[in-house]
Amino acid sequence: MAKRGIARRSAAALIGLLVLAPALPLAGCSQASTGGAVTVGPGAPAVPLQPAAPPPPEDVPGIAEGTPCPGSPRAGGWVAAENARPGTRLSLPSGRAMAGRDGSRVLGYPDRWSARCGEVITVQLSGPVSSVRLVAHRIGWYRGAGARAIWTSPPVRVAPQPVPSGETMPHLVQPGWPMSVTVPIDGTWIPGFYLLVPLGAAGPVGPAIPLVVRDDDGSEPILFKASTLTWDAYGDWGGWSLYHGPAGNPPVAAANRARVVALHRPLADAGYEQMRYMDLPVVRQLEQTGLDVAYTTDEAVDEQPRQLLRHAELVSGGHSEYWTRRMYDGLLEATAAGVNLVFLGANSLWWRARLETSPNAVAPDRVAVYRSVADDPKAAHDPMAATALWGPTPLGRDPASVLGQSHAAIGVHGGLQLVDAPAWFTDGTGLSAGGVLPGAVGNEADGYNPRGRNPAGTQVLAAGVLTGTQGPAVVTTGYVSLPSGAAVFAAGTTYWACIPSGTCFDETPPAATATAIARLTRNVLTTLSTPYAGRRHPAVPLVPFTAAQLLPTLAPGAVGSYGDDTAEVEVG
Predict the structure, then answer these.
(1) What do you get for the CA distance between the two ends of the chain, in Å?
(2) Rounded to the nearest 5°, which phi and psi values hold at 115?
(3) What is the pTM assigned to this prediction?
(4) 82-113 as b/e, with b when 16 or more CB fall inside 10 Å?
(5) Rounded to an integer, what distance in angstroms lies between the CA atom of residue 317 and that of residue 29?
(6) Distance from CA of residue 169 to its chain's centroid?
(7) Where residue 37 falls among pLDDT bands split at 50, 70, 90?
(8) In this structure, what are the phi and psi dihedrals at residue 406, rounded to the nearest 5 degrees?
(9) Mean pLDDT estimate for the chain
(10) How far apart are CA 418 and CA 159, in angstroms?
(11) Per-residue pLDDT tens for 265-297?
(12) Which pLDDT value is given to residue 42?
C-alpha cells in the first residue's frame, strides 16, 4: 500500500474491500527533488541524484556484441572493481513527467523483466518519435556518477501502437505490441540492474525501461530482489491498476479496479515510481558498499525459489508488497537454512499474488490479485489458492511471524528514537540509545504489534509513535533472530529506501538523519552478509508494549502523525 501513485486506503482496504481516494502522481518515495546526495559515513563522497542529461546517441559508446559469457564464477570483489570504472550521469525525470498519457512520449517494455547472459530479449516501443536509440545503463556507484552506459542500439523505428480498452472484467490491459528491437545479453552485460533509456536527438524521449541481468549460478553474499510484482500492481498504463479503474469517484474507481494485470506492458506513472524510488536508491547504496551483489526479480524467484539458498542475505527495497506462494515458501526455506533477510522498507509480505499464463504464452505473463476469497474464481474450489491478504484466514501467514512487525499506518510523517540499538547497528553513527532520527518515517509504516505472531527473538531497534483519529500507532525498526540462526532486519518505513538519497516526495529529513540512515543501512548490509548472522548477533527479546506506554518515553522528534485513512492491521 503506498500513499502516492495509487490511492489512499481505508480500513476496509486491509480486509480486502478497497475504498480508495483519487490516484495521485507518485507511489511510495516519490518525485525527486533536484539536488541532494547520498553520504555513507563521515567524509564519504556525495552522489549527485539528478545529474545532467545523458549525452546524445552519437556520443554514447557502442559496445561490440558477442562478448562471451563467463565460463566460471566471477572472482570476489567484482562489484567493487566494476564501480571503480568511470560512470555516466543519468537524468531520470519523474514517472508522471514521462508518462506519455498525451501520446507525446515513447513508451516501451521488455518481453520480461530479467534475463541471463546468452539470452536475447525484445523491447516493444510506441510513440510519435520516428526514430530513437536505446541506451543501456547499469545502475551502481561508479565514482559517484550513479550509472554506466554499456550498450547502444542502432536507430529504431517507432510508431504509435494501440492501447487495449480493458473495459471487460477482469480489466486486463495487455498490449501485445510488435517487437521493435532485440537486445542480446552477452558478456558485456554483467549482472546488475539496468535502465534502457530511449533517446532522441535532444535527450530522453520517454521513461527508462528497467531490466535485471541475473546470474542464477552465482553465489555472491548478497542477492537483491527487484519487487517487479509490486511495480506491476501499481502501474496503471491503459487506465487500470490493481487499485483503481480510469474514472469515477474513489469507491467507484476502486470497485472498477483490475483483478489481473499484464506483466509485460509499459511501466508508467505509479509503477515507474515504485521502480525508481523504492528500488534504484537501494541498488546504488548496495554497490557503494563494495560487497558483491547478485540480482533477481519476483518472477525469477517464483520460478526458482531455491536460488535464495545460494546467498547469505536477501535484500528487498522500499516496497515488496506482493508475494506468490512459491516466493513465500522459498523465503521460509531460505531462513530455515540460515539466509538473512533485509527489508529496507515497509508494507512487506502483504498480498498474495498468483502468476498466470495466457493461452498463447510460454511463460507467466499476468499477475492476478482478486483481494478476497469470494472474488477469486480459483478460491471457490481451493480457499488456500485465494489471492488475498497473507495474514488472515484462509492463508494465515502473519508477516510478523517473519519480520517481527507488520503494517501499521499510511500517510505517515514522523521520526524514530533508538530504543535498543546494538553496537553493530550504530557503528560509525555516533548514535546510542535515546538518539533521535527526526523525519525518518514517511509514506507508510510498519510496527510491532503485541497481537502479532512475533518470533520469540524479536528486538525493537528504534521506535516512534504516530497519532491520528484512530488513536496512536507504533512504528518500529526491528531485528529478529530466528531459531535457525538467520537474522531479519525490517526498516519499518517505505521512506527508509529513499531518505539517504534525498529523493522522498513530501519529506525532507534533516541531513543528519539522511547520513545516519545511510550508515545504519551499510552496517546492516555488511553485518548480515554472512549466513546465520542471528547466531553471532542474537536479538534481545523485547518486553511487550503498547503505543500508549511508549509515547511518554519519546522525544518530540520521534512523534508524528498518520492519515485519516489508516487502518488497523488484521493478523488473522
Answers:
(1) 18
(2) -155, 165
(3) 0.88
(4) bbeeebbbbebbbbbebbbeeeebbbbbbbbb
(5) 11
(6) 28
(7) very low
(8) -150, 180
(9) 86
(10) 55
(11) 999 788 999 999 899 999 999 999 999 999 999
(12) 29
Consecutive H or E run containing 244: none
Residue with cell 508518462: 99
- Show the cell assigned to 150: 554499456
Backbone φ, ψ for residue 37 (5° rounding): -155, 155
pLDDT at position 47 over 60: no
Supply the DSSP symbol for 384. G
Q: What are the pLDDT digits (tens) for 428-472?
A: 999 999 999 999 999 999 999 988 899 999 999 999 999 999 899
Can you tell me the distance from the alpha carbon of 100 to that of 113, in angstroms, rounded to the nearest whole number? 21
Vertex 435 angle, CA 430 and 441, to 5°: 110
Non-local (6+) Cβ contacts of 168 within 8 A are: none
Contact residues for 386 (Cβ-Cβ < 8 A; gap 6+): 352, 370, 372, 373, 376, 378, 379, 394, 395
Condensed to tens digits (0 to 9), the pLDDT of residues 127-164 reads 988 899 999 999 999 999 999 999 999 999 999 999 99
- The DSSP element (H or E) to which 299 belongs, if any, is helix 298-303
- What are the two backbone dihedrals, phi and then psi, of residue 161, each rounded to the nearest 5 degrees? -115, 155
Cα 406 to Cα 453: distance, rounded to the nearest angstrom: 10
146-to-138, 224, 280, 343, 501 alpha-carbon distances in Å: 9, 17, 10, 22, 11
Measured over the CA atoms of residue 96, residue 444, residue 523 and residue 317, the dihedral's sign is negative
Cell of 155: 536507430
Measured CA to CA, the distance from residue 402 to residue 490 in angstroms comes to 10
Helix or strand holding residue 331 (H, E): helix 325-336
- Neighbour count for residue 217 (Cβ, 10 Å): 12
Residue 44: partners with Cβ closer than 8 Å, 6 or more residues away: none
Q: At what angle do helices 511-527 and 280-289 cross, to 10 degrees?
A: 60
The dihedral over CA atoms of 98, 101, 105, 109, expressed in degrees to the nearest 10, equals: 80
Of 254 and 94, which is predicted with more confidence?
A: 254
For residue 278, the 8-state DSSP code is I
- Letter for the amino acid at 262? A
201, three cell numbers: 536527438
Are the C-beta atoms of 294 and 276 separated by less than 8 Å? no
**pLDDT for residue 65:** 55
- Smallest Cα–Cα separation from 116: which of 58, 194, 20? 194
Q: Rounded to whole angstroms, how far apart are CA atoms 294 and 312?
A: 11
